[in-house]
Specification:
Blueprint (H helix, E strand, L loop, with lengths): L8 H21 L1 H9 L1 H21 L11 H8 L9 H24 L16 H20 L5 H20 L3 H22 L2 H22 L1 H16 L8 H18 L10 H10 L16 H30 L6 H20 L9 H26 L2
Helix pairs in contact: 1-4, 2-15, 3-13, 4-15, 5-6, 5-7, 6-7, 6-8, 6-14, 8-9, 8-14, 9-10, 10-11, 11-12, 11-13, 13-14, 14-15
Subcellular location: Membrane
InterPro entries: O-antigen_ligase-rel_domated, WaaL-like
GO molecular function: ligase activity
């Protein structure tokens, strides 16, 4: 199932359509599944609210119908999540995710060492997809590590999950994507702390954390110095950013953020419309109000500023609720007595944390691949918890 998110949109359309139909049938025929949704209503409601707002923005700004390509995905995954209300074989699902992590990590290695790609970008998306690919890959790494930490994981499965973590992390480092790798650190630390508190295995946690940190530092400081160079360039680009020097990854982001903020200031309540930042930026460049360095960009490389520019304060509120509602839902079950419920809760929190942190320096929902993963995992995990809570209450 997870592999379908890593291939081209044409290949993934068929399995998604099948899952959508199955989900609809499940919702129509199974009262237990509908109850699972009701127990996870806040998560589904936040997704629906974001879809409704995007539809209103589309109508209000009279945008091209292609603008709705990504928003309507929400309907798809609202139905697909019903599959998680079934008593699925969790071992098979965990294995599938780890195998996906290995495939994508190996793809990164292949692109770097065989094809000579400077920054691997995965199976689709092109050169500009390196950041989203890194975030996607690191989310899968966290899920694999979670499975490796579980006490009830079979030894053979544990080795598979550990291999997925190693290969996936190495593949993510090869992308040289600073934002996702920096976001990964606190989320990974949170996972380790949750594991230590729940299992009381503090020594094991510290050992695993130390091995991971030392391993990543060794790779970045010896084999791949370019990652260190990119990190050290940040302060220099910030210090030298100005109207006459807006080239470079960091400077261009600063210029785009400045332009997006101007769009918000000009339209604080209605915004300029979904996916209209590129049009606005090019107009600003033509008028001499923005650097030509950002003329080719269509998004401002910040999901929060994208929302402010596209729909003003209401859009930012909807985005924050899109993160906050599932965060509150999962946090409530983080220390649940049932191990499967608690595991699903920490998994959901890790996904939201990665996306929420990466959203500061990149657009995390403007491509189908990362948005699909978010909706699939967050809605699926929430409905799965709802199913387990319902089953526990009927015993």
């Amino acid at each position: 199932m997870p592999l379908c998110f890593a291939v081209s949109s044409r290949l993934k359309a068929a399995p998604m359509a099948v899952l959508f139909v199955i989900g609809i049938v499940i919702l129509v025929t199974r009262a237990e599944s509908r109850l699972s949704y009701r127990l996870a209503w806040s998560v589904a409601a936040a997704c629906v609210l974001r879809l409704v707002y995007d539809l209103g923005n589309f109508l209000g700004h009279r945008l091209d119908v292609s603008t709705l390509d990504l928003p309507v995905q929400t309907l798809l995954f609202l139905a697909i999540a019903a599959v998680s209300s079934l008593p699925l074989k969790q071992r098979a699902i965990a294995t599938g995710f780890s195998l996906t992590t290995i495939v994508l990590g190996a793809t990164s290695l292949f692109q770097r060492y065989v094809q000579g790609v400077d920054r691997p970008y995965g199976l689709n998306g092109g050169d500009w997809a390196a950041v989203e690919f890194a975030m996607y890959l690191l989310v899968l790494v966290l899920l694999s590590m979670l499975q490796a930490l579980r006490a009830d994981t079979a030894r053979s499965d544990r080795w598979l999950h550990v291999a997925a973590v190693v290969i996936g992390l190495y593949g993510a480092v090869l992308t040289q994507s600073r934002g996702p790798l920096l976001a990964f650190a606190p989320v990974y630390l949170g996972l380790m702390l949750w594991y230590a508190v729940r299992s009381r295995q503090w020594r094991r946690m510290l050992l695993l954390f130390a091995i991971t940190v030392v391993g990543m530092l060794a790779i970045t400081t010896t084999l791949h110095r370019e990652m260190v160079d990119r990190l050290t360039d940040v302060s220099h680009e910030i210090a030298t950013y100005g109207p006459n020097d807006a080239t470079g990854a960091v400077r261009e982001r600063l210029e785009m953020w400045h332009t997006a903020w101007n769009a918000f200031v000009e339209h604080p309540l209605a915004g300029i419309g979904l996916d209209q930042f590129g049009v606005y930026a090019r107009a600003q460049v033509a008028a001499g109000h923005a650097s030509p360095a950002i003329a080719s960009y269509v998004h401002p490389h910040s999901e929060y500023l994208e929302s402010l520019a596209a729909g003003g304060l209401p859009a930012l509120f909807v985005l924050l609720l899109f993160f906050a509602a599932p965060t509150y839902f999962f946090a409530r079950h983080l220390n649940h007595a049932s191990e499967p419920v608690a595991t699903a809760a920490i998994a959901g929190l890790m996904v939201i944390s990665m996306y929420g942190l990466c959203a500061f320096s990149d657009n995390v929902f403007y491509r189908a691949m990362p948005q699909s993963l978010y909706l699939f995992l967050v809605l699926g995990l929430a409905v799965s918890i709802g199913r387990q809570l319902h089953n526990a209450s009927t015993r």
